[in-house]
Amino acid sequence: MRSTWDALARADPGIYVGDPARALAELESLFGRLGADPRGGTCVEVGCGPGRMTGYLAERFDRVLALDVSPAMVAQARARAYAEGWDNVAFEVVCGERLDGVAGGMADVVVCYLVLQHLPARRLVEAYLSEIGRVLAPAGTAFIQLPVLEPGLVARAWRLLRSAAVPIHALLARGPEASPALRGVRLSGSELGRAIGSAGLGVGARDTGPDAPYRFSRDVFLRLERA
Ligand SMILES: C[S@@+](CC[C@H](N)C(=O)[O-])C[C@H]1O[C@@H](n2cnc3c(N)ncnc32)[C@H](O)[C@@H]1O
Q1: pTM of the full structure
Q2: Across residues 189-202, what is the average pLDDT?
Q3: Which CATH architecture best describes the domain 2-226?
Q4: What three-state secondary structure class fits 4?
């Protein structure tokens, strides 16, 4: 995951991270579609990238802890924070399987946007949901987005084929664009529901986008709270 995202950090962020010009609109849409307008307290941003959304989070919250698996992404975000004077933001590089070093119960809000879709194994998505449950304060709220596999046999069959094709393509094509750490995996709705429950979380609000830039998937937006 780290080498893939370090390589992608050197590429066009508009392609692999998200359009910088749309960051505020996307953040406001994430909160708004889930009936929330969180402000104040401590926000943990999981997968901050080069800081596309981090400055807008810094305006809303008293403190932001921005995490990413990629030191190159964090270096870009830190440089931006320094240039723009975001003095309430701290950055940490995490190992990619856990939110290392983040104390349990310290987050009033967790934001995880355009990240879970890239994790290369279902167990990692489950581990991240569990970690989000761990770091949330008892009255905290997590806002997450991920594409979820559509119901039906065709979608399941496509996922099976894809799970075989992605590693083969990565071997043949090489390069970060073919990496499983970019391509990610898709959970079904029931797999996601079980993972949320196992993480000790409950769904406070849910919204579904019209589609996702992934086949047989729809973007799902969730407001999660400790169960
Ligand atoms: C598509 S970018 C989105 C960045 C940011 N959330 C945004 O919307 O602008 C995905 C980010 O997730 C990070 N990432 C990927 N896997 C991760 C993991 N296991 N733990 C933490 N960050 C990860 C990547 O390094 C990258 O910066």
Answers
A1: 0.96
A2: 97
A3: 3-Layer(aba) Sandwich (3.40)
A4: helix
